[in-house]
Amino acid sequence: MRILLLIAIGLLLYVIISKLIRQTRPPQIQSDSETMVQCHYCSLHILEQEAIRKGDNYYCSAEHRDLED
Ligand SMILES: [Zn+2]
Q1: How far is the CA of 56 from the centre of ligand 1 (A)?
Q2: What is the b/e burial string over 47-69, where b = at least 16 CB atoms within 10 angstroms of the residue's CB?
Q3: 10, 30, 52, 66: which is deepest, by most CB within 10 A?
Q4: CA-CA distance, 64 to 43, in Å (whole number)?
């Protein structure tokens, strides 16, 4: 009966580990989210994720965001 218990624990560990591996894998949709936006102050093109957003406008740096005021 001890062997059955070991097999059950082994199976449980296998399921947990394979689930963890699936969760830590980086998502493949990253290239889709790389949208280019234009700085509202100097018209420089920057990645949306790197841009500083203020309302509906994007800025390449905090400096340009503040200069716009
Ligand atoms: Zn700018």
Answers
A1: 15
A2: eeeebbeeeebbbbbeebbeeee
A3: 52
A4: 10
Q: Would the CA dihedral through 42, 48, 52, 53 be positive or negative?
A: positive
Which of helix, strand or coil describes residue 24?
helix
65 CA to centre of ligand 1 in angstroms: 8
Residues in the chain: 69
Each domain of the chain, given as residue ranges in start order, spans 2-67
Q: Ligand 1: distance of its center to the CA of 60 in Å? A: 4
